[in-house]
Design a protein that fits this description.
- There is one protein chain.
- By secondary structure, the protein is α/β, with parallel strands linked by helices.
- The protein has a single domain (about 5-185), classed as 3-Layer(aba) Sandwich (Rossmann fold), CATH 3.40.50.
- The chain is about 35% helix and about 15% strand.
- Strands 1, 2, 3, 4, 5 and 6 form a six-stranded parallel sheet that branches.
Amino acid sequence: MSLPLLQIITGSTRPGRAGAAVASWFADHARTHGGFEVELVDLAEVDLPMFDEPNHPMTGNYVNEHTRRWSARVSRAQAYVLVTPEYNNGYPAVLKNALDYLNREWRHKAVGFVSYGGVSAGTRATGQLKQVVTTLRMVPVQDAVHIPFIAQHIGEDGTFQATDAVVASAKKLLDELLLVGTALLPLHAPVTPDDGS
């Protein structure tokens, strides 16, 4: 039996962001964990415009090719980790936009969070995201990775340098994500975009 696919979504697109380094570190850690097939999804590369579909995402009736591509990519995964900074006590608009594009593709799938920031370590962004993902009928796991004072953990080579506490929290997150994600597998239904015909 193949391993479930975990997509690690980098939720910041700004130049100089720490998110790509954090996501890359977490992806390496997830591969070492061994419970998942792992795929990095960088929203800077996905490059979705601000939501521009005329129909509600719940219908699956997508008119734009970029939406169809996003739907097909997200549909492949059985679980997700959202890697997010905290901007003004919240999370980036690009991440909300990416979530809002789809509906059925996210449903009944486990989701975890890796957040970073200053003293709050992105916990307020994670709290707000939980409201969004539960409305999409995703199942957020309780364990999470929260990284305070992120600038202190980016090396001169641009890589993320994890503390022992962060490594331990990553293992707990992956263990819970595998447990919950596996339990949810029977609820996953194939998603095919409606061509409107």
